Amino acid sequence: MSDETLLFVGGARPLPANVDLAVRALTQARARGLRTYVTNRPAVLAATPSVLELADAAFEADLSRTGETADWAVRRVAEGDRIDAVFGLHEVAQVETALTARALGVRGNQPESVETARTKDYCRAALAKAGFAQPAVRLCASASDALTFLKTNAGPWIVKPRDAMGSVGVSLVRAAADLPAAVCLLPDAGPFLVEQFVEGPEYSVEGILLAGEPVVLAITAKEKTPLPYFVEVGHVLPAPLPEADQREIERQVGAALTTIGLRTGAFHVELWLTPAGVVLGEVHGRIGGDWIHALIEYAIPGLELFGLIFDDLLGRSPTPRSLAATRSAAVRYLTPPPGRVFAIEGWDEVGAHPAVIHAELSLRPGDEVPVLTKSSDRVGLIVVGAADPEKAERLARELTEAVRITVKRDA
Asked: Can you give the residue ranges of the ATP-grasp domain (predicted)?
């Protein structure tokens, strides 16, 4: 094993997709001979035993306390240890990852760039200033602020938290009368955003930054729940797009990442393709959720997504290889109607299908299916691989429809 050490800030959240991300990352780090340290609160570390099994050591550092991980790492190095690269998987770990890399003097994103990407209105302002098409947006402290925005900007509009994930508190407002209900959906009483709704199919761009330059690995087509909510229920990768659209999307995403200043790690950039062209949405300095990482590594056989990132952080020259997708993958979520589960049929047969890469179902008879307003309300999913995007999307849809979940609504 090499003496080089990778600090894995925040480890994994105790969710199947996040744990799978961490396991793949640590496995690829081990294949490169790296020693790995994982940090988080003890309760989170204990909730992810498969991650701890792959790490060389785990240490307590609370992500909610800004600078705590950086201070711990600096002390560790001062005591004679070494930390050569710093990496974080999930959204809330990105600022601390950047702060720690800067404190140690190793490669990483500037904390200010990460803050800009993570704070939705800052990101909108930076992109608009650089000339990118952006919807009008306002940071609001109250429903009264939001109403003022509605009166001066054409609708419909979206109400959403300033800093949240998983479609929590995101809803569509078509008229002023809809505003109180939208504000009630927000997760807390803090400042929130109202922005103009963008009409058009939605995509995301997945990639990594190598030698400071964005490398697009794939564009993902998305399907969401019917309005007024925005929960993602399906992804297909690579998206079946005309070559000209692909080139323009890649050009704009690359320029946006440069504008914001992200230089290392992964990226996941959301956008809409409108009749007037590309409109960029949220920019994330991390890998996309919803098992997109598994879709990428299936679509590009032999790809070690995290290994390339680690090589870049350490200044290693990666072995040249093609990063073009040669096959396709899709994930689709089960969306039974709300109510109490009476019976589940067909799940075992679907899980045994040879094209299934991963499947999970959190329901049992007697459980309650919630109204689908945020990502955590989703109750199951199926990930499949296929030869092309159309086959992947069709197969994922057929398999989810083959699972029959009977629910009864309470009287």
From this structure: 124-314
Render the burial of 89-128: b for 16+ CB within 10 Å, e for the rest: bbbbbbbbbbbbbbbbebbbbbbebbbbbbbbbbbbebbe
Phi-psi sector, 198: left (phi>0), alpha (psi -120 to 50), beta: beta
- Do you find a cis peptide bond into 156, omega within 30 degrees of 0? yes
Per-residue model confidence as pLDDT tens digits over 8-67: 999 999 999 999 999 999 999 999 999 999 999 999 999 999 999 999 999 999 998 999
178-203 pLDDT tens trace = 999 999 999 888 899 999 999 999 99
Check which CATH number belongs to the domain holding 56 and give it.
3.40.50.20
Rounded to an integer, what distance in angstroms lies between the CA atom of residue 410 and that of residue 392? 36
Note the pLDDT tens digit of each residue in 246-290: 999 999 999 999 999 999 999 999 999 999 999 999 999 999 999
54 and 17 within one domain: yes
- The pLDDT assigned to 307 comes to 95
Question: What's the pLDDT at 1?
Answer: 60
Per-residue DSSP letter, 277: E
Count the domains in the chain. 4
What are the strands of the beta sheet with 404-408, ordered from one edge? 368-369, 339-345, 404-408
- The whole-model pTM stands at 0.94
Do both 204 and 319 map to the same domain?
Answer: yes
Give me the domain span that covers residue 149.
136-196
